[in-house]
């Protein structure tokens, strides 16, 4: 017997302690994290359309970037996040279409989405290559994937050493989060027509989290292609 339960709609394992812990942690730390990330989010989440798909919205950190009356299609398999996400959407005047699904298999129709967003999510998914393929599948021609993610530090740096040392306890605590993924490389290899990204560094006590990228990937077939 384990401490994991299975989300019935998806088969996604949610640890009985970690799921509620992460929901509480990101609710409590949300304002602090937002101050650190705000300038980057404002750039890549500017002028979002009236309907947005978000991978792993958690407790709703990105709701302020949606216009009041917009619709958020939320792909969120962590059920302990759902109550807080619903409450946050109501506070911000955003219509919430909550899907208890994994990012690898959203269940959305192909080529029907203008914009997909994510923040601090691709580090946690089981198969980031499959997730990026799913994003490309659901984006309409010329659609955009807008992201703010933390990534592996350059090899040989002190931050990379810390990431390597802490990788197991970090992943266990934060629902499988890997602090050693080359997400920039994966994005560039994912088949988008163009990927514009900017690396940057935060200065927080959460050292494995401090190396980040933010940008926009453009699906083929529109002005971005």
Automatic annotation (TrEMBL):
A Pfam family the protein falls into: Methyltransf_11
GO biological process: methylation
GO molecular function, one term: S-adenosylmethionine-dependent methyltransferase activity
Keyword Transferase: yes
Residue span, Methyltransferase type domain: 54-146
Keywords: Methyltransferase, Transferase
Protein name: Methyltransferase
Origin species: Actinoplanes nipponensis
Lineage: Bacteria, Bacillati, Actinomycetota, Actinomycetes, Micromonosporales
